[in-house]
Amino acid sequence: MKCIICGKREALVGGMCPECFLESKKFVNPPKKVELSICPRCGAIKLGNNWNYDLNRDKGIDKIILKETSLEDDRVNFTFSWKIIENQNLLELIYNIKFNESEKSEMYQVPLIIKIQTCPRCSKFSGDYFESILQIRSSRKLTRSELDDIKDFVLKTIEREMLKNPELYILKQEFKDSGFDLYLSANNSAKIISKKISERYGATVKESPQLAGVKDGEKFYRVTYSVRMPDYAEGDFIKLKNERFKILAIKKGQIKVRNIENGNIGSITQKDFIDKEYSIFARKDDVENAIVLYEKNNEIAIMETKNYATTIVKKPPFNVSKEVLIIKDGENVFIVDNKI
Ligand SMILES: [Zn+2]
Ligand SMILES: [Zn+2]
C-alpha cells in the first residue's frame, strides 16, 4: 500500500510513509521554561530544590530539558541541541526526531531563567547566613570527657540531618567551659536536632525566636535553642528517699537506675525524678580502687589503694574479686560494680 499523503512511498504507519508521518504533526512538548540557579562561588547548580556539585551550567540545562520534554507519540525517538539567545533570556531548542530511517527537526524557544544563588557549602565559608543557634549548656561544669561525648553526639546528629536536608550546614562553632554554641543554617533541622539531644541526655530545651529582619518579603526569625543538660549524668550516684542508686542510662525522659545496696534495677521518669528531690552524692569519676583484705559473714574488710585506709563495708549484691571499686557517701563506703 502506498502512502495516503504522497502516494509515492510505502505506507508504514497510519497509512503514511515515515516521511509523511513525521511531517503530519508536532511530536515534542518542550519544557515550559528552563530554570536553574548557579552558585557564583563554586559553580554548583541548583535544579528544583537540590544542589548538584557535579554539574556545570550546560549539563544542568541538558538535564532539565531531558527531564521536562515529553513526546506526543512514543513511536519516535529524539535527540536535542540548544543555544542561548543572548540578551533575551531565551533558549533555542532544536529537537531531532527520528522514525525508522527518517528524521526531521522541531525548533522551540523557551524562557531561560538563570539565578545567582550562593550554595549552602559556599555560604558556610562566606559566614553570612544562619537561622538558628543551638546552645548546649549545663548547670554544672562538665568534665572534658562528658563534653566530648556530648559534642560527638551533637555533631553526629547534625551529620545525619545533613543527609536529609542539603541546606543544613554549621556556620560557626564556639566552645566554652560550660558548653558550646553551634550556628546552624536551617531552623527546621535545628529544632529536630535539639529534640534529639534532649531525648538522649534528658536535657531541657528552651526556644527563643528573635526577629532578625525580612527574608523573601516575610519576617525572618532566628531561633535560639537553649539545651540545658541535667546536673546528673550516666554513671553518677544519686540518693532518692534514702536509697542510693547508680544512674545506668538516660533515654527519652527515662532514667534507668540500679540500687547499689541491693542490686535492684528500676526506671523512673525524669519528671518524677526531679519532683522527688534527688541528690547527687558522687560522680562517675569519684569511683576509687580498693583491695579486699578478708570477707566475714556479710561484711568485707577493704583497703583503699590511694591511702591504705582500711574500712569494713557491707557485702555488695554481687561476688567480689581481690580488687574492687568503691564509692563514698560521706562516711559510708560501698563496693560498686563497674558494669553499666
Ligand atoms: Zn508519504
Ligand atoms: Zn558554591
Q: Outline of this structure?
A:
With 340 residues, the chain is of the alpha+beta class. The chain has helices at 18-23, 57-68, 120-126, 144-164, 187-201, 270-275; strands at 28-29, 34-38, 45-47, 50-52, 70-71, 77-85, 90-99, 102-116, 132-138, 170-176, 179-184, 204-215, 218-229, 237-240, 243-251, 254-259, 265-269, 279-282, 288-296, 299-304, 310-314, 323-329, 332-336. The chain has six helices and 23 strands.
What's the order of the H and E elements? HEEEEHEEEEHEHEEHEEEEEEHEEEEEE
Give the helix proportion (percent range): 10-25%
- Terminal CA distance reads 88 Å
**Number of discrete domains:** 3
**Small-molecule binders:** zinc ion
Give the uncertain stretches in residue-range form. Answer: none
Main sheet characteristics: 6 strands, mixed
Mean pLDDT: 89
How many strand elements? 23
Global Rg: 35 Å
Shape: elongated
Number of helices: 6
